[in-house]
Amino acid sequence: MTFSIYEIILILTFVLFVLLPKKKNGLIGWGYFLGFAVLFELIITYYWAKFWGSNFIPFNFFALGCAAYYLYISYHFIRTKKIASLFRFLAISWGIGSVILFVLSLRYESTVNLVYVSGLFIAVLMVLLYFKDIAESKKFQDVTKMPYFYFSIGLLIFFTCNFPILCYFNLLISNSEANPEVANALSDILKIGNICLYLGYLLASICSIKIPRYIGSY
Fold this sequence. Notes:
Helix 2 runs antiparallel to helix 3, helix 4 packs antiparallel against helix 5 and helix 5 runs antiparallel to helix 6. The protein starts with a helix and ends in a 10-residue tail after the last helix. 76% of the residues lie in helices and 0% in strands. It is mainly alpha-helical. The protein has one domain. The radius of gyration is 18 Å and the shape is globular.
């Protein structure tokens, strides 16, 4: 079992966050989410495919779990009540639809990429609203000390770069009739997007932990 660059970044992020003391500015449920990501991204999907020949079930569960967390955490940074109510309705509707399509995917053995993309799209809209609020705020905000800022940058880059590929994932990559060369090339692009996403994870975690100082005073 070998690890790609983005998987190594994910492992490092999880280890740092678990071992080092945390600040009070951390993201809600961040440690649990990282544990979930490591468990499914590195372990369950790998061994599921090894023993059952396909990992679409844990892959779908992992993808929808990630999108759900992105929606959950982004919702907490919406400041306008009316807009928050709108996004709450969209998120709940998405959640109901994702459960239904996940169950249907068990029958047709396909990835729920469009549901995943739609969840990311709603989360990215929240991210853009977050950036808008910061830009229009009259009060200075040091975004370098905000874990969500780094997380949102990683998510935005990942979604922007990979949006077309994610939409046509079943057709271009997971389809048995897909061109192998094209599928491999697109998979490499997705990996680059994952690197950006997980670097956002890493920076958000570093921003949330207390770095020990081992240099003494003289």
